[in-house]
Amino acid sequence: MLLDSNIIIYAARPENSELRRFIAECTPAVSALSYVEVLGYHRLSESDRPYFEEFFGATRILAISQAVLNQAVVLRQMRKMTLGDSIIAGTALVYNLTLVTRNIEDFRWITQLTLLNPFEDN
User: Fold this and answer.
1) Which of 38, 40, 28 is nearest to 3 (CA)?
2) pLDDT at 27
3) Is the pLDDT of residue 11 over 80?
4) Which backbone phi and psi does 23 adopt, to 5 degrees?
5) Which one of 3, 44, 51, 106 is most buried, counting C-beta atoms within 10 A?
6) Who's near 94: CB < 8 A, 6+ residues apart?
């Protein structure tokens, strides 16, 4: 499984203990883009920084390889989407991983991509 950046952020909230449990049980990976998006967020509080640094230290971070870039280009040629979403989706496709996101609608059109929203009953 590949965690979208929004899932990483939601997991940091105290009320999302079930999400943290889910993440711990499935031992997911993250895109290097999520590392930049989360730790590089200009409003990241200093109190949240240690949590995220520990999370990324314990998680497999997948590089934005040439194959991921090529897949992101193909996706953006097919349909208008953000650069970040194209790289996240491209990473999931290249590594053949289920994308765990709360933004299912942003990715639903990518038929070869398996999606999971952990906030919905599955």
Assistant:
1) 28
2) 84
3) yes
4) -60, -45
5) 3
6) 65, 67, 68, 71
Model confidence pLDDT, tens digit, residues 39-51: 998 888 888 889 8
Sign of dihedral through CA atoms 69, 71, 72, 78?
positive
**55-104 residue pLDDT tens:** 999 999 999 999 999 999 999 999 999 999 999 999 999 999 999 999 99
Q: Please name the residues in contact with 52: beta carbons below 8 A apart, sequence gap of 6 or more.
A: 8, 12, 38, 39, 44
Q: Is 56 left (phi over 0), alpha (psi -120 to 50) or beta?
A: alpha
pTM: 0.90
Can you give the pLDDT at residue 113? 97
> Strand, helix or coil at 21?
helix
User: Are the CB atoms for 1 and 100 separated by under 8 Å?
Assistant: yes
Other beta carbons within 10 angstroms of residue 41's beta carbon come to 14
In whole angstroms, what is the distance from residue 83 CA to residue 118 CA?
Answer: 24
Residue recorded with tokens 């053949």:
96
